[in-house]
Amino acid sequence: MYIEAIDLGKSYDDAIILEHTSFRADEGEAVAFTSPSGSGKSTLLSMLGLLLDPSSGTIVVDGQDTDTLSDDARSELRLRTFGFVLQHTQLIGSLRAWENVATPARFAGKLDFDPEERAKQLLCELGLEDRLNHYPFQLSIGQKRRVALARALIMKPQILIADEPTNDLDSSNAASVTEALFGHAERGGILLYATHDQQLLERATRVMRLEGKAFVK
């Protein structure tokens, strides 16, 4: 498994957000993207995760040029291959913690695991065994972030994308999230993440920094 960005760019009207960004990440790699706030890290991650179409260039996932895929095929690839940890947890207020985690699996058809069982297992691994049946309003920011991380892992994704995953977390919560993220890469997955956190940058296999409008090694 690998993911490759080839001359990737994004613009809106005459405003260039990103351009000429190329890299490849293979199994077991953790690639960090760092730059000043508002300079395109989130845009890049959204394109890499097939949530946003690039204005130029292409993304190749394990040999598949994603430009050639239909909308349905892209959606299926995104569901089966990617997990997302966004800055805003976007938990569903009417669902308990384990139900939020299990939600992506409800759209996946036949699975080789029980969604409820796996959701609860992931939450326990993240230290939330006493919060399984809590609703989002009953959770702290750090707990919500860990629920969102468990949700990102529910489908056993090969590629995990995280946008400022430790932002606004205390040291204990940040450590828990960090270990889960890098555990994914250590088990052979691919981790792509945006951060300003120096500790997270030091753990990266490779750090891509913004020069002009392009991320480069």
Could you explain the architecture of this structure?
- The protein is of the alpha/beta class and 217 residues long.
- The chain has one domain: Rossmann fold.
- Helices cover 33% and strands 27% of the residues.
- It has helices spanning 41-48, 71-81, 97-102, 115-125, 141-153, 171-186, 198-203; strands spanning 2-12, 15-26, 30-34, 56-61, 64-65, 82-85, 159-163, 190-194, 206-211, 214-216.
- The protein has a 6-stranded mixed sheet with strand order 6-7-8-3-9-10, with helices on both faces. Strands 2-1-4-5 form a 4-stranded antiparallel sheet, covered by helices on one side.
- Helix 5 runs parallel beside helix 6 (171-186).
- The longest helix has 16 residues, at 171-186.
- 37% of the residues are buried.
- The model has no long low-confidence stretch (mean pLDDT 94).
Secondary-structure element string? EEEHEEHEHHHEHEHEE
- Output the CATH homologous superfamily: P-loop containing nucleotide triphosphate hydrolases
Low-confidence stretches: none
CATH architect. name:
3-Layer(aba) Sandwich
Number of helices: 7
Please give the share of residues in helix: 25-40%
Proportion of residues in β-strands: 25-35%
Number of domains: 1
> How far apart, in Å, are the first and last alpha carbons?
21 Å
What's the total number of strands?
10
Average pLDDT metric: 94
Q: Tell me the CATH topology.
A: Rossmann fold
Largest sheet: 6 strands, mixed
Please write the CATH class name: Alpha Beta
The shape, in one word, is globular
Structural class comes to alpha/beta
What Rg do the Cα atoms give? 17 Å
Strand order of the largest sheet: 6-7-8-3-9-10
